[in-house]
Amino acid sequence: MSRQLAARPEAGSIDVIGLRSLLRPLLASLDQVEAGLIAYSRETACRQPLLESLWAVHHITAALGTLRLHKAEMLALEMERGFLRLLREQVVAERRNLTMGGLMRAIKTLPAYLDHVQRSRIDTGRGLEPCVNNLRRWEGERVRPPALFFYLQLPAGCGISGAAPEPAAETIRRSADVLLAPYLQGAKSALGAAPSVENVRTVARIAHKMHGLFRGTEQERFWLLLVGLCEAIAAGLVEPDECVAQLFKAGAFMIKYAREHGSVADPAMDYHSYLQQMLYYMASCKARPLYVGHIWQVFGIDGNTLHDAERGLIHNDALIAALEGAHSLLNALVDRLQAADLLAAVEGGSTPLPDAATVFEEIRLRLIAAEEIDHAEDIQAARDMLQQVFSGRFSQDVRRGKQVVMSIAGAMVETEIALSNRLRHNGFIPPAVQAFDHLEGLVAATCNQLNQIQGQLQQQPRDEQSLDDCCAALAGIREALSFACLAREAAVVSSCHDWLRNASRSGEVASDTPALQALADALVWLTLYLESRLLDPVEDFSTLLLTAEQHAARLAAFAPAAPQAAVPRPAVPRSDLQPLQQEEEPEAAAPAGENIPQEFRQVFLEESAQIIDRLQALLPEWERGAARDEQLREIRRHFHTFKGNGNAVGLYTLAELGRDVQDMLDRVLESQGPVNTELPALLRELVAALPELVATSGGGGGGDFNLTTVRSLRSRCAGLR
Known about the structure:
Radius of gyration: 31 Å
Structural class: mainly alpha
Shape: globular
Order of helices and strands: HHHHHHHHHHHHHHHHHHHHHHHHHHHH
Distance between the termini: 28 Å
Helix content: 55-70%
Mean pLDDT: 82
CATH architecture of the largest domain: Up-down Bundle
Number of strands: 0
Oligomer: single chain
CATH class of the largest domain: Mainly Alpha
């Protein structure tokens, strides 16, 4: 029996489409609730506004439950309980104002939380714990464990071992049968009024045994975290509460299920929620004994994890205001700096801008408010460098001063691009959208091409020229998708192209054949997949692509006989089906439009030489350990600077290379599994290739720019995980 679990939606995922459709009515209901609370505060003897507010909150609670926003539903339930207690006059006089204040805070928090959920697409619980527990405190209720409101974003498969030997199902059943009774006894004693360390250790030993039995499955993470939780309880780092009791109870149910079903995961078990709750207790530990420290490493927990998870909510309106303000100020500042001629300022020939530092600070604060921390730091560094330029520090070292000016320009260009992208996407860019953003034009063009090809293949009769045009268009699409590192999509197109080309040469393209139907199905499903990604880059449409691959695979069974050597045909005019096909040109040609002024190129060369020198020194040091450490982050920062410098002077091909390396290293730094063994060799090749690529960039001579090398390196960076 395979231990590979079927893919299923993450438990924290939500019905985004349903939320969009219900968001306006929900906000209208909240306005009604607020109006009723205000009316009651003015005249507490009148109960009708409370009744109307209670009824509106009841509808909100039902809607949130329908949308599976269970953490938001907890807040709505507390609001409902608060209004009901006010209506029944069950709140003592000195607590009534506190309860009303808590209700007003909840009314203001819920819209911001729904906005946050709509952008993040996850019911994280962020910012809800103070609202829920304050209402419960003021009503005399016991507070909810903070673990219920914790969420940590984890890479797919984090904490699950790779290939592991699979024990027989009967072995798991027998072990579970033996372990169930001592687990129940140990858990009961560990949660009692006077728990002993030995009872907690008993639960830990059983959890460790279960962890070994379930290696490579979804259940493995639960048992690993339960071992860490027991260790933290035994060390006095975690105080058992109702949430811990539920976690222990879940462990008992899992052992019972394993006793009957072996390694099969219980479909009724909310593993995701239990995982997040135990991660909260791990993140809250002040010390890190053996298992807790291991869990911190595996799941990427650090000293900022709790702080980041508990940050306050920011409504999209405020986010947009911060982004627009920073973007407007930045553009105005760029215009002023261009008019001031910073290159002349290096030599002392320009008047300082007296309020530039103030504008930089205003931009930085708005970036922090919009949670653009990295770019806020870049802007602060640019401000400090600008002050040095105007102070005359580089008047005796003009070359260094020009490099500093280039760094200032790079930081501002990078920040402007980031702000423009976020504003384009209404303030929030999920990671999937960031990865897809630069492919949007290519995907749209590919969809148009595929629709034209399908239309032309349906025409009767099909002449030789028409089939040639379709083959040429498919070849162009395949090359474009391959260059964009869309390997699976390119493979589907390649299968279709190869069959159509061979069938055309063999004269075997007939109407209503199974082979032609398989070709049409593959193209239709691929088009549907690409069009779906254009509409919503965040949703997972991989099943559509898998269907296209299955139809494309059918073409292998209809492979025509190998054609004779083709007779060269006369050149034909390029049809409208071929805009994606690249013209034949020397691969060594410099990218079009990247011949830049010699002065800019010289500064770029000098700045890049320093980056390359630093990378050449850093890389061997990092390779000795090859870990996700500060040295790798420093390497990533240098490629980030290289990308910004390329964008600043117009060398976009090199800037794209720098961006792909930066994105690759971001994935490596954020991942939890072992560092890919191919990474050191790839970084060596990148650093080795940079000197020649930089020297031949910008149309400055010194040899031909090797575009083939850039394409190969970019493709490998995109493919490395």
